[in-house]
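sorry for the late reply, my laptop died twice this morning and i had to redo everyting from scratch. anyway the thing you sent over, i finally got around to it. pasting the sequence first so we're on the same page, its 573 residues, then the predicted structure underneath. double check i copied it right bc i was rushing
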Amino acid sequence: MTASTFSLKQKLFIHDALLITIMGTLAACGLIYEYLMAHYAGRVLGAMESTIYAMIGIMIVSMGVGAFIAKWVKCPFNGFVWLEWAIGFAGATSIILLSLSFSLSYTLPTYLQDIYGLHPTITTDGEFIRGLTRFTKVLPFLAGGLLGLMIGMEIPLIARIREDLHGEHLEHNIGTIYGADYIGAGVGAAIWVLVCLKLPIIIAAVSTSLVNSIVGLFFIIIYKERLKSVGKLFIAHFVLLGIITSLALGGASWMENMQATLFKDTVIHTKITPYQHLTVTERYIGKGLPKITSLYINGRLQFSSNDEEIYHSYLTYPALTASARQDHVLVIGGGDGLAVRDILQWNPLTVTLIDLDKEMISMFRGDDQDMPIDLAQRILAMNNSAFRDPRVSIVVGDAFVEVEKLLSEQKRFDTIIVDLPDPSHPDINKVYSNFFYSRLKDLLSGDGAMVVQSTSPYHSQKAFISVGKTVEDAGFVTEQYHTNVPTFGEWGWTIATKIGKSPKERLVSSEGNAAIESNLTKEQMMAAFVFPTNFYAEKSTIAVNHLGSHATYQYHQEAWGRHEGVFYTKRGK
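ok and here's the structure:
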């Protein structure tokens, strides 16, 4: 072997190592983009698992289409550099542009009212506005498809560049490139979980796009002799770096401002946790009247300070009254501390609360350093500093897992309060299943009572009945009740006991607790169990929610997704 031949092989080895490393790096970026777009689409379109899976599916199909399209790129070197520029630009700007489009679709009706001086009762949400809103909901998938298309072109172009450098067909070229791609994707998944989920979504986006732009610049420097219009390529990439820098410095605040336009009240605090987007708003009513403070999770209202006492009285009072004792109480969910506030009035010995999000707990315990001081004080006044009470133990974790730990410790509770979000996401399905309720049954004392937040009995009637049937299927004596919470509308709960008298019979014979500060009288409580005569007419056709069946989720989706929560009255027979 001559020295020149040896030198050529060394150079080719270095080029191969460089290209394989680039492929692995870009695969990591591609996987992050995939999760990024799916994550964002899930958040803005309702945090639905179907949205996340649809986005991932669309991007994977688009990658396949991109792989086919890549064969029409004449020069793989120039094509690859421009491709990295395009991916970097789309990756950096897509999230901010999508946020802007959502903000515009929601604020345009109000803007038109102001422009034309229309009275607030005259709405401008006609077919054009509805069409714009529908198109806005499609945009995330279009952006994801475009990104996927370009990402899919990377592998064929890298493969062609390797063969061009070698000057021959490489037998194991595709296998080598795909090996780097799969390993890089695994690294990208780890980076997404360990790093990106802890960052503002715009920062995760621009950080990933920065990698694409650096790869493009590096490629220009290394292979400038094989490139055309090198000057234009440098200028384009430096412009992209300027865009990325601008978005890195101001993107998070711009997105917060656009997010704020989606709320009718003033946003005073917002926080993105690994699990949800928390937003606190306030509304000024008038001189001498308290401000209305509201909490939204992923854009969905959780409570308003002006009427949350109604909801929490109906959530806690009946179950605690139906329990023979109130010494040990378990709360599942309820990370705002408002249910715990009401439970503490019953002088329990212990209250155990399980919630997934420690940052939400921190917010309502008054420990969030980012929260305005006056808001922290207002929140502590609302929940009476419930999480600082020495009788309260907080368990941060998945309730499905933590309940099993409590069972292994042979714990028992006199009352169980289940205050989880609506079954609007398949991930929540497991804690609306008969299996989960059967585990709670094992935690409940024989003469205790349990209550489950059960969504709206009118806007989501089938889901409401499904929750009741599922609790009953787990071995409980079950009844349901409802009331009107002005902020939410008609809302409902399922109350259950293990043995002996039914929940309503216990409430009828109870003396109540006169020492408890509550506007809920015994007469109101009993009236809440009254439904229209034909309300349960189709109960036999409604499914129990088994683990993995998603029955309750499907009912909820049908009501709110397809029918937009419309309630139809039925003439009694």
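Confidence is low (pLDDT under 50) at residues 118-122.
thats about all i looked at so far, will dig more tmrw
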